[in-house]
Design goal:
- This protein is an alpha/beta fold.
- α10 links the parallel β7 and β8.
- α8 packs across α10.
- The longest helix has 15 residues.
- The mean pLDDT is 90.
């Protein structure tokens, strides 16, 4: 691994940890038996979702803003964020007595918007993505003289985020692998700088949502390249272009950058809720999602530390993701059958589903359609099941009863 061109040092990161000691407390490191059994190595969860303001972002925001001169503080600061950085900057501004303006995408999660306002920031929602909001933040900085607090692309931000790496080594000194969700790269870069100096043997893996992955193409090209698409539920890591500060650190110090599917993120969020009793947002669950997706194929040396970077999730989004995760995990089964349009047909289907130990959640009668005879009715069913094997048993039980499955479902 070649040295990076970053000017950030571990001594500076240690100084930031001292600075932050009066602002935040170290987040918990929790052993997770379920993930450990899946990958065949001890897995510990670094719970930044339990951090003050709900994510790791306060580490970098406070470090950056505390170093401003009195004159700069008087001019106020401006930031662009999908939510977590906004809350970190707003909270730091509240503690340091600095006026904060934040540009957020128009579809930023409402709880993140409300929490940012509650910390005293002025909010303006513009653009569809973080990158579009960042354009407005830069323009405001140029127009008013406010100091731009970039979400990831500044040495002080990387320095502050690196304090998470120091905590990882304190809490799990024999760590062999660290897996971190990756958006712009501030957290991953900070952790990598710590690991490469203090534990160069540690394998470092960054994980991006495959529907918003700018780093794989950028690493292949050797310079930051904009992502072709930004269509992920993981808004916290939906960054279209790697930063000039963070990119060389990730390129030089991180062992690999991987991607995780939307289904993998959903499964991980549901897994963490059920098995770890932790509320985590999609971006925060990306590292765990990659571990779950690759448990059977990727040899991973333990102990493994999986960073859960944030927990600020809209309850409505959580409901949708839980349903998505249930389908991805084979816990919901949806299919349709055609039966005679006679009294008792529906009752028979209900009884047969109960006989297969499947709980019915929704039923829809479809009486008209190009392939439905006048004496038939198509019945669409959504069932609650116990996993892929149970789904297969339910479908086979229905076939054995003589039903024709109209739309064969995909079983995970």
């Amino acid at each position: 691994m070649t040295p990076t061109s970053s000017s950030v040092t571990v001594a500076e990161i240690r100084a930031a940890a001292d600075l932050l000691s009066t602002v935040i407390a170290p987040t918990p490191m929790e052993f997770n038996r379920g993930l450990s059994e899946r990958i065949g190595a001890d897995v510990f969860l670094k719970c930044e979702n339990l951090q003050r303001a709900g994510s790791f972002k306060i580490r970098g925001a406070y470090t950056r803003m505390s170093k401003l001169t009195d004159e700069e503080k008087a001019r106020g600061v401006v930031a662009a964020s999908a939510g977590n950085h906004a809350q970190g900057v707003a909270l730091a501004g509240q503690m340091l007595g600095i006026d904060v303006k934040v540009y957020m995408p128009v579809r930023a999660p409402m709880p993140k918007v409300q929490a940012t306002k509650a910390y005293g920031a002025t909010i303006e929602q513009v653009g569809e993505t973080l990158d579009e909001s960042l354009v407005h933040a830069r323009a405001w900085a140029e127009e008013t003289g406010a100091i731009l607090i970039h979400p990831f692309d500044h040495d002080d931000i990387v320095t502050g985020q690196g304090t998470c790496g120091l905590e990882i080594l304190e809490q799990c000194p024999d760590v062999k692998t660290v897996v971190v969700g990756l958006g712009g790269g501030g957290l991953l870069a900070g952790i990598a700088l710590v690991m490469r100096e203090l534990r160069p043997d540690v394998r470092i893996i960054g994980v991006q949502a495959e529907q918003a992955a700018a780093y794989p193409g950028s690493l292949a090209a050797g310079h930051p390249v904009a992502a072709a698409k930004m269509q992920t539920m993981a808004d916290g890591i939906a960054v279209g272009l790697p930063g000039d500060v963070t990119f060389p650190v990730v390129r030089d110090l991180v062992d690999s950058v991987e991607t995780v599917s939307e289904e993998g993120i959903s499964r991980a969020l549901l897994f963490l809720l059920e098995r770890a009793k932790l509320v985590v947002e999609p971006a925060g669950a990306s590292a765990a999602g990659w571990l779950l997706e690759n448990a059977d194929t990727e040899p991973i040396a333990g102990p493994v530390v999986c960073v859960l970077s944030g927990g600020n999730i809209d309850p409505l989004l959580m409901m949708r993701i839980i349903r998505h995760g249930m389908v991805a995990a084979g816990r919901y089964l949806q299919f349709s059958v055609r039966v005679p349009d006679t009294p008792g047909s529906l009752a028979a289907i209900l009884a047969d589903c109960a006989g297969a130990d499947a709980n019915i959640l929704e039923i829809e009668h479809i009486r008209t359609g190009p392939h439905i005879n006048v004496d038939e009715v198509e019945i669409a069913l959504r069932l609650e099941t116990r996993g892929p094997e149970h789904c297969e048993r339910v479908l086979q039980a229905m076939r054995d009863k003589g039903y024709t499955i109209v739309h064969e479902p995909e079983i995970p």
